[in-house]
Amino acid sequence: MSQLLTFDCYGTLIDTSPFWNELEKIGLEYGMKQNSLVNVYGNYEDRLMYGEEPFIVYSNIIYKALQYCEMELKVDKLTREYERLIKIHKELLPFPEVKSTLETLKRRGYRTAIMSNSDWRIMNDNLQSLGHDFNLVFLAEDLQAYKPQMSFFRQVQNKIGNESHIHIATGFWWDVVPAKKMNWQRVWVNRHFKKGINDYQPFKEINTLDQLIDYL
């Protein structure tokens, strides 16, 4: 059987910067200070993902995070921008080298999978943008857990069995750290040239996805 490669999606395959740029634009439209909406939204998105409340699918987290932004920033009717943000998220595009890299991997016989904190309402559109036939798609919506929760990774392991595979991701905390705990092979796509934490070695470090070809 050909080797399986598992990929994080957002930040690894797909560029999420337009989503955050749109959020910043909304904040300015509502008269907020630079970065205030982005910072508060990001904080509440994390709390809703990793708090003690029952699991909430990602598209609903966007709405609830906007509700908390209304409260925290004392802004009315911010939730009316919800569909605008959903639309932006659905229209996100891959990084320039991603599609050709995935095509090369397919030609070379690799099997591919996505592991993402998203849900199907959004992911269906993003998969179309990637234009790649992934063998497997693991979403938080289906697993009822968000990376880096170990439940997510253990469920993926259970589904793929003892097959050896390589996990490729940008998120260090979200992916590289839990993949280390699972004893998976890891490739860190360090697009922003950050300094990795040596405690989680060994991992291969690349800066763009096309560099994965030479590594494999």
Could you walk me through the main structural features you see in this protein, from its secondary elements to its overall organization?
The chain is globular and about 55 Å long. It is α/β, with parallel strands linked by helices and 216 residues long. Helices cover 48% and strands 13% of the residues. A six-stranded parallel sheet has the order 3-2-1-4-5-6. The longest helix has 16 residues, at 58-73.
Please outline the helices and strands:
Blueprint: E1 4-8, H1 17-29, H2 36-50, H3 58-73, H4 82-90, H5 98-107, E2 111-116, H6 120-130, E3 136-139, H7 140-143, H8 150-160, E4 165-169, H9 172-181, E5 185-189, E6 204-206, H10 211-215
Parallel strand pairs: 1-2, 1-4, 2-3, 4-5, 5-6
Helix pairs in contact: 2-3
